[in-house]
Amino acid sequence: MNNNALSQPERSKRDFLKILFSGGLIALVGSVLYPIFAYLKPPKQSEVEVSSVKVGKLKDIENESGQIIKFGSKPVILIRTTQGDLRAFSATCTHLDCTVQYRKDMGMIWCACHNGKYDLTGRNVSGPPPRPLTEFRVVVQGEDVFVSKTS
Prior knowledge:
Blueprint: H1 8-40, E1 52-57, E2 65-71, E3 74-80, E4 86-90, E5 100-103, E6 108-111, E7 116-118, E8 124-126, E9 135-141, E10 144-149
Antiparallel strand pairs: 1-10, 2-3, 3-4, 4-9, 5-6, 6-7, 7-8, 9-10
């Protein structure tokens, strides 16, 4: 007897069972994978609105140095020049959002990702960065140093 010789009702029952088991298998895989991916995905957090951050004491910041501080959820680089001036800029490169750093040997702000360079006014001078760094205001009150957004 030939297997292809199944009657039409038997064939439709087999097709129905194939669809039923395939759908059940897809539902089972989805019910296992969805909670795993939902757990691994970080939760959305609302942006914290920060207008000013206390950095520390002026005496603790050395001349010709740079440090990264958190301004809300974003990094800001605070630089103290050789003359003792304090300057603050966004610490994310305007090219691909890498974190920049102060290079004492070059006297510049440097992005390690693609060798982008900024001068100490935040202006892009070399490399692929298309725009200057966003400047922040630095206020010294007594011995305390505060960084705030420029308005």
